[in-house]
Write a structure and sequence with these properties.
GO molecular function, one term: ferredoxin hydrogenase activity
Strand content: 15-25%
Strand order of the largest sheet: 8-7-6-11
Number of domains: 1
Keywords: Iron, Magnesium, Metal-binding, Nickel, Oxidoreductase
Binding site for Mg(2+): 43, 62, 397, 449
Family: Belongs to the [NiFe]/[NiFeSe] hydrogenase large subunit family.
Binding site for Fe cation: 65, 446
Helix content: 40-55%
Shape: globular
CATH topology: Cytochrome-c3 Hydrogenase, chain B
Oligomer: single chain
Largest sheet: 4 strands, mixed
Number of helices: 16
Length: 474
């Protein structure tokens, strides 16, 4: 007989989600769905707020990647003011984003995903977590914590606090970097680099043991989207948008975020609060594309710093060219951390980095604008419409995790179909399905918004937990 297996909650991710695995009469997988079950609706309650507040408000969407929204909102505000921010302002914003990518990727690799790699997919779930990792390899766990601390402190030195800063504003940033802050960063860069090389060597040495995971954890053809610089280099803040395919061919290039609605559509399904973006030319759901570290390393030609470029060359050799397996997201994060540390090192040597000329002031000159930047998890869009007084009339956010929604669903289906057969459902198999989601390091607090009237289900239960009534809106 047919059966549904529910993994609830999906663990070691940011936010709340569940996975439903639908088995047929033979006990094989028919379908798999990744449900995002939390609803937040930031887009709606931003309406009526002054555009000047949007950076500080949207930073509170998330505690792991607040800098992404802070910077993207500020970039959108720059365009509403039609202002060119000072060079120091852009460099300081870049520095904060580099710190954020570093800390977020360190959290994903060391704290959320390493328990699977180091303790085993089939190990006891009670200890298959960061505490088990600390017990098994305290030096590695400590190094990962300190690497994340480095990135968080870079953010704090600029914005005065590690999370939910309102430091980046339309026109630039509120305050410069101090000489003491610059020296703190310079002094600790060597340790941070040592840690990322430790992680890179560890992961590369494990890859041969993970050939099944490489083949089954989201290995399929898709498009890839990300920002690239003017010289085709890796980019995280500026540049233009590019789509490439699984053969490395450029599908669309030099795309402006202003026209994102021409090439990105958004669909919804009644079983998830997470929207399903897709590449419009291919339609839904065929227009599947991926964003984030895997995509960024696919769409660029090079990174632009020597050590990261050397690692990128080896990464591509191990991937067989274009990386199409989502398992390589973990590897890509480590390459990106190294790229971030080298970029930070260059900024620390730039005399502009201590300049106090870091903000341009202007009045509102436009009533609609779109900003884009690269969050740790992928490309982020903020689209604002305002009235003549600068009050928000409409907001649309396309979040990195949302961009990956079709790919995440395809990944968990691929993994489940490989491992679950003939009613043989083992805990380790289900952990592998969850691990498919962890490849993408989703941030579900960022990603859940309303699109018109969303499907809704409310369960009313008594104090004993017994269901009294279900109310459903399709």
């Amino acid at each position: 007989m047919s059966k549904t297996i529910v993994i609830d909650p999906v663990t070691r991710i940011e936010g709340h989600a569940k996975i439903s695995i639908f088995l047929n009469d033979q006990g094989n997988v028919d379908d798999v769905r990744f449900h995002v079950v939390e609803y937040r609706g930031f887009e709606k309650f931003c309406e009526g707020r002054p555009m000047w507040e949007m950076a500080g408000i949207t930073a509170r969407i998330c505690g792991i990647c607040p800098v992404s929204h802070l910077l993207c909102a500020a970039k959108t505000g720059d365009k509403l003011l039609a202002v060119q921010i000072p060079p120091a302002g852009e460099k300081l914003r870049r520095l904060m984003n580099l710190g954020q990518i570093t800390q977020s990727h360190a959290l994903s690799f060391f704290h959320l995903s390493s328990p699977d790699f180091l303790l085993g997919w089939d190990s006891d779930p009670a200890t298959r977590n960061v505490f088990g990792l600390i017990a098994a390899d305290p030096d590695l766990a400590r190094a990962g914590i300190r690497l994340r601390q480095f990135g968080q402190t870079v953010i704090e030195l600029l914005g005065a606090k590690k999370i939910h800063s309102a430091w980046s504003v339309p026109g630039g940033v509120r305050s410069p970097l101090s000489e003491e802050g610059r020296q703190w960063i310079v002094d600790r860069l060597p340790e941070a680099k040592e840690t990322v090389y430790l992680a890179l060597n560890l992961f590369k040495n494990m890859l041969d043991r993970f050939q099944t995971e490489v083949a089954e954890f989201g290995k399929f053809p898709s498009l890839f989207m990300g920002l690239v610089g003017k010289n085709n280099e890796w980019e995280h803040y500026g540049g233009s948008l590019r789509f490439t395919d699984s053969e490395g061919n450029i599908v669309a290039d030099n795309l402006s975020e202003d026209n994102y609605a021409d090439f990105i559509g958004e669909s919804v399904e009644k079983w998830s609060y997470l929207k399903f973006p897709y590449y419009k030319s291919l339609g839904y759901p065929d227009g599947i594309y991926r964003v984030g570290p895997l995509a960024r390393l696919n769409v660029c030609h090079h990174i632009g710093t020597p050590e990261a470029d050397q690692e990128l060359e080896e990464y591509r050799q191990r991937a067989g060219g274009v990386a199409t397996s989502s398992f390589f997201y973990h590897y890509a994060r480590l390459v990106e951390i190294l790229a971030c540390l080298e970029a930070i090192e260059l900024l620390m040597a730039d005399p502009d980095i201590l300049s106090k000329n870091c903000r341009a002031k202007a009045e509102i000159n436009c009533t609609e604008a779109v900003g884009v930047s690269e969050a740790p998890r992928g490309t982020l869009f903020h689209h604002y419409k305002i009235d003549e007084d600068g009050l928000i009339k409409k907001v649309n956010l396309i979040i990195a995790t949302g961009n990956n929604n079709l790919a995440m669903n395809k990944t968990v289906a691929q993994i489940a179909k490989h491992y679950i057969r003939n009613h043989d459902v083992q805990e380790g198999f289900l952990n592998r399905v969850e691990a498919g989601i962890r490849c993408y390091d989703p941030c579900l607090s960022c990603s859940t918004h309303a699109a018109g009237q969303m499907p809704l289900m409310i369960d009313l239960v008594n104090p004993q937990g017994e269901l009294i009534k279900s109310i459903q809106r399709d």
